[in-house]
Specification:
It is a single chain. This protein is an alpha+beta fold. The protein is built from 8 helices and 7 strands. It folds into 2 domains: 3-78, OB fold (Dihydrolipoamide Acetyltransferase, E2P) (Beta Barrel), CATH 2.40.50.140; 82-148 and 186-245, de novo design (two linked rop proteins) (Up-down Bundle). The protein has helices spanning 80-84, 87-103, 110-125, 130-144, 190-199, 202-207, 210-228, 242-245, and strands at 3-16, 20-27, 31-37, 55-62, 68-78, 165-167, 172-174.
């Protein structure tokens, strides 16, 4: 059977039998791969600890009939250690890997791998608040999938202007005349924060008022849920005003 090697991020694992695991990997070149790690739960396993979620590995696999088989795995970056001792980092990382898992079901670009790797590294190193890192990741990951929200132009007409109504189902900000009644409106600084998160302007992100950051986080969460069309379960564990943002 053909053997191949790649760098990969462990997205999730499932128990299989008494000693094995099914490991879902996001590979740098091969996209999403589901593979069996045989005997990985035995105390004598050579690479059990290297196949935990949030770990970046140099992995060798061979192609199976339904699932590939992991032959070897060497750790490149073990982000899971930093996440396991910090609840905010852990939940943010879970949102990121779950989103990556869903977004790469059918379409994959190497940028998906690079984006997730960079986001997990930033989380592990505590470079910025966990919530801001996950918000930036979600916006960029959705943009890769073709779902970047309209921020500076009306999502319906394309007209520029100081549009403040943010309507998830309409694609972002829309003019007041088109926004359904009761639509949430971005607070002062909200639009600027969205732009900063997309562009990675961390100086601007870090200066945002907590209330503005909270509102924007809720909108991003709602926007993510809507476009993935499947519930991102990990988002429920983050402190976000999702229900208020969906209106």
């Amino acid at each position: 059977m053909p053997t191949y090697r790649d760098d990969a991020i462990v997205l999730r694992t499932h128990l299989l039998g008494e000693a094995d695991k099914i490991v879902t990997l996001l590979c740098k070149k091969h996209g999403k791969v589901r593979a069996v790690a045989k005997g990985v739960r035995k105390t004598t396993s050579r690479f059990g600890a290297r196949l935990e979620p949030f770990t970046v590995v140099d992995v060798q696999l061979y192609e199976g009939k339904s699932l590939d088989i992991i032959q070897q795995a060497d750790a490149i970056d073990n982000y899971s250690q930093a996440m396991s001792h910090d609840y905010a980092k852990y939940t943010a990382a879970m949102v990121m890997v779950e989103t990556a898992d869903k977004l790469t079901d059918h379409d994959f670009l190497p940028t998906h791998y690079m984006l997730l790797n960079g986001g997990l590294r930033s989380l592990a190193q505590g470079e910025h608040p966990s919530g801001a890192i996950v918000d930036s990741y979600l916006l960029r990951a959705l943009a890769l999938a073709g779902w970047s929200p309209s921020i500076t132009r009306c999502a319906v007409t394309g007209d520029e202007g100081d549009h403040r109504a943010f309507v998830v189902s309409m694609g972002g900000v829309v003019s007041d005349g088109l926004a359904p009644a009761g639509s949430p409106k971005l607070s002062d600084g909200g639009k600027e924060l969205l732009i900063a998160l997309v562009e990675g302007d961390w100086a601007a992100v870090d200066k945002a008022e907590p209330a503005v950051s909270s509102q924007v986080s809720g909108l991003i969460a709602a926007y993510t849920q809507f476009h993935l069309e499947r519930h991102v379960r990990s988002l429920a564990h983050l402190e976000r005003g999702v229900s208020e943002a969906v209106s």
